[in-house]
Fold each of these.
Amino acid sequence: MTETPAPVHPPLVPALADRGALAMSEEQLRDWGLRFGRATHAPLLGTVSGELGAGKTTLVQAICTGYGVTEAVTSPTFALAHEYSAPRSPVHHLDLYRLERPDQLEELGWDELLTSRAVVLVEWPERAGDRLTGGHVTLSLQHLPGDPDRRLLYAGWHA
Ligand SMILES: Nc1ncnc2c1ncn2[C@@H]1O[C@H](COP(=O)(O)OP(=O)(O)O)[C@@H](O)[C@H]1O
Ligand SMILES: [Mg+2]
């Protein structure tokens, strides 16, 4: 059996995530994202999954702020990708909701992104199909039935 190499980062997922799934208010989610961003080092690929309105962009905004992005982070719904600068590395925020086929990722410079020393955060990663390689942090948000103000956050590592 081959051992999975450990990620080259110090711990990326703050202690709060040890419990696996947490119901969080928007303020708590932003605070978690800030701390995650501060603890993050490039290169990092992170996927952010969840339905429309689950809070993916809200979480990405907080991670970017924690990482040191000072520009306003807006949803790349139409452009599919936005790039920001931060002191430690560039940050790429992708929203693949409108991607029609995984091969369109080439136009976005996907392969370069995955091998660059950058932080890459991807909403709707399912759209990338098998272009999405292992070795990334998985963040997932879910609505809570009957509680419109809180979301379940799952954080993990996809080897
Ligand atoms: N606990 C929560 N966490 C994140 N967003 C929340 C929460 N409660 C309410 N919201 C609201 O839900 C919406 C999430 O929008 P957004 O982050 O754009 O979602 P997505 O990118 O997943 O489509 C925002 O309007 C936000 O104010
Ligand atoms: Mg979004």
Amino acid sequence: MVSTGFSGRRPLPREETALNTPPTGGVFLDWPGKSRARSLAEKPEKGLLEPVAEKSVNPQRAPHLFLEGDNLRILRLLKKEYARSISAIYIDPPYNTGTSLAYFDRYYRRQPTPRSPDAPAAPLRRDDSPWLSFIYPRLILARELLREDGVIFVSIDDRAVHHLRYLLDEIFGPENHAGTVVWRKKVVRGRGHRHLIPQTEYIVVYARSIRLLRPFSEPLSPEMISEYRLSDDRGPYKLIPLAKSGTAHSPRPNLVYPIEAPDGTMIPCPTHQWRWSQQTLLSRKDELEFRKNRRGEWVVYTRQRLYPDGHLRRKTPVSLYDRVSTTDGTRELKNLCPGAVFDFPKPARLIRDLIGWLPLPEDPEQETLVLDFFAGTCPSAQAVLELNHADGGHRKFIMVQDTPVDGRTNILELGHQRIRRVLSLLGELTPHAPDGDFDNLSYRTFRLPDD
Ligand SMILES: C[S@@+](CC[C@H](N)C(=O)[O-])C[C@H]1O[C@@H](n2cnc3c(N)ncnc32)[C@H](O)[C@@H]1O
């Protein structure tokens, strides 16, 4: 049996892991039970984690971890050794149905039944406080675990997004809201909605410190790459007009000036302003290209390189995501684990794209830990494994999943099954894997006994 020694890390000094003082000022959400919920994040955790050999794959060298048990207790344990160590957290918490039904395992609460079987059931009153009390201490601990340049992605639907934003604003600070992704999760219409058919949900993104969170980027699409048709000794490029498109109410005077064409004539700015100042223009002259349009007028362009610094150009992601749907998530799980029954597993591709927005560390020795403490069927583990396989990264996953109470399915087993299947598929793709890859293809499992 080990204490928190599953990580091989030394516990951090106490003051370093203490909860930060909550921010003052601003608008905070209050509900019955809030201060008790907050105190749960601070409660010391004495639990012990023990290795589960039969649920581990090549455990001697495994970088990845699967931790079984209640995530509140496990987050408290993780805090002892992983405070400010996690690069990215993705979570998909049980959604707030507002009806106090079993939307999370340990907070299972039944509806009061009507007094007489003949009496009409009173309309259910929405009660958000159990969900808020459930999620609040876990989000506080999540922040404690993040590196200073770390980020959290939280999947949520529109019944709870407003509450979640208030909680995250309070815990992380509103200035650290990096944005909210709207995920188009289905394209079919579906039944049972009289007013609006929900086709979208959200992924709310907060930085531990927005100043330190490095810019997100993603690969260009093949269509975008095909636009770089021109080429010179510095490689492929495309032309972008120097004249700024769109309109501005007040053009900046330093961006409006005539430019001298190759034949000595002067080109006035054809729109409200150029994109570059005269100073920039002088210092980046070799990036300019002059071409004549059909009317014989000069047009000024800048060359945008496909490999600006030796690496393939990437782009900043947009807040609308529609590459995969819940149907893809279900299909993917069934392909990996035939017969699996689980409502709306997240597609691994969605999480892979989110995690892939983060640049890999410049220092290859620096760890990139990715935590999901509502792991479910573990699409996040799949996402990390596939991303490492694709780009040679050394991200390590930490999955946390409770012992399930859902009678239909053994969620824990589904998670393990998915991971083992992905490991074996990736292993087949890299039969002569170098050592690093072999390490990527293994994981260790620990469990909180008596949980
Ligand atoms: C919405 S599901 C996550 C699904 C997952 N993203 C997937 O695609 O498979 C939430 C998961 O959190 C687990 N869970 C709920 N309460 C938990 C707790 N206190 N500790 C650990 N896991 C918990 C549930 O068993 C469920 O599998």
Amino acid sequence: MRLKSSCASCLLAIATSPLLVEAGSVCLVSLVELLVPKGCRVTLISGGDMQPPKKILCVVDRGVWQHHPDLLDAITSYCQHHRSLMSLVCPPLVVPGGECAKNDLTNVATIQEAIHQYGICRHSNVMAIGGGAVIDMVGYAAATTHRGVRFIRVPTTVLSQNDSGIGVKNSVNAFGKKNFLGTFAPPVAVLNDADFLTTLSTRDWRSGISEAIKVALLKDVEFFDFIEEKADRLVDRDMQAMLWLIYRCAQLHLDHIATSGDPFEFGSSRPLDFGHWAAHKLEQLTHYTLRHGEAVAIGMALDSTYSYLAGLLPKPDWQRILGLLSALGFAVYTCELSLYLHDQRDTRCIFTGLNEFREHLGGQLTIPLLERIGRGIEVHEMDEQMMSRSIALLAEYQSTST
Ligand SMILES: NC(=O)c1ccc[n+]([C@@H]2O[C@H](COP(=O)([O-])OP(=O)(O)OC[C@H]3O[C@@H](n4cnc5c(N)ncnc54)[C@H](O)[C@@H]3O)[C@@H](O)[C@H]2O)c1
Ligand SMILES: [Zn+2]
């Protein structure tokens, strides 16, 4: 398995390797030893034209560091041990975790300044260890310096391991808009270590499951059956069930990126973004108090309900979807869905999310909906009255199911 930095399909090699789900220890030494086969490890750290030792700048999510206080020393010792291959340019930088990493642009400046100060070149490595937000932010900083330096992702949440970590996008929020500044830049490697998952809060353990449900709903009914069958075990934090969920979800995302023919989204559709037009708007309306995965769960409940009311999705399928989300502990409704519905020019009205979604993708409005569990369909118009009825139905569902 050789890695090239320029092609999305090379990432498939890492994510489809069985090693992905057999990670053993949280310390970086065993993380790299376990996850990356020997020849590949050399390619990873010392790839490119330049002779080793290659420079590496490491950035760590503060939330991860707080739960793994030995991590910074482990990174330093690892690099010292492998000094013929790599040179850690400074002690790992610790940055705020969560969405504030993407909301405060001084974080980007900090990383860019370090790249400048320590002479990180296009053959050096920047490595980010953290949740999806920190990885998005550091990836953006890495992609915009020297027009792109090598970037290694070590995702530490369910969502970042099964979805964002293996994608090709990097971004930060600006002008009140989610992911407004960003790049398409594949990482040179993605390393998933299961031990990081043991320290996640209940919310962050659950949150990423919604992205797995999303891809199952669009593409794989058997995967949906699996999540439904294992719902209780997932709630009980069964690691084996979670590892298969992450593996299958990552694989489906990678298959899509590698084979859809549009990895850099030149078209106006984003087939995997089921439930995301509302999710991105809800994140913004709740001032990011909702996690991305939680907002996606509500967005999917909304678009499933709309699909059902529009006569696209059979009622039993709709009931199974809402039943699964609720069984996992997701809310399917939040009051921000219902505010300012009478004034669709008010930016606090959820419907403005449709136009923001269209604007972000460019071209014609294209929204993924469902025909049945396991099969998505794209539409180019949304009926706002039917959407209002969907919101009312969800509010009722939520009040009767809690
Ligand atoms: N680039 C993409 O393709 C893509 C796709 C989906 C989502 N995203 C982005 O990912 C972000 C959400 O990422 P997320 O769900 O990973 O949440 P997050 O990055 O917001 O992290 C949530 C919290 O978990 C903490 N944390 C991280 N790892 C931990 C660990 N192992 N133990 C304990 N705490 C830990 C963080 O410090 C933070 O407080 C959003 O900004 C979303 O837009 C990007
Ligand atoms: Zn998402």
Amino acid sequence: MTSAARRGASAALLLAVAAAAGGAGCGGRDRFAAPATVVGETCASCGMEVRNPRYMAASVAAGRVRPYDSIECAMKEAAPVAPRGHRILYLADYATGTLHHADSLWVVRAKIPSPMGAGLAAFLDRAEAERVAAAREGTVSPASVLFAPAGAAR
Ligand SMILES: [Zn+2]
């Protein structure tokens, strides 16, 4: 049996890998944080000023922020632009007017006076989203489904 020798060899390999990984350095700075707000900026899709924090949205790609005045404007841009993972999307929580990663939000399409008229608003709290959808004759879907490439939903 040569298992002792093999164990020794793999231990040496592990050490080499660990040393190489250590050389890459560590630092939390390369992780891009969500912008706090984009109010006052110009919508990258329709060119209107972002006025209402409840409907604002933003996408971040390669460290650059593109602001939107509405979820529908963010959809217009994000849907056709493909490779997922390249672009990080943030939508405002309607209740608080703060931006959050789109994956954690529920989008209501209802009789809501959103800036571009599509009636879209996003919610962190699913129960709140259901409540608003019921009161305003709308529907609720996860933002991740709404922004999925190539229409599963129309
Ligand atoms: Zn817009």
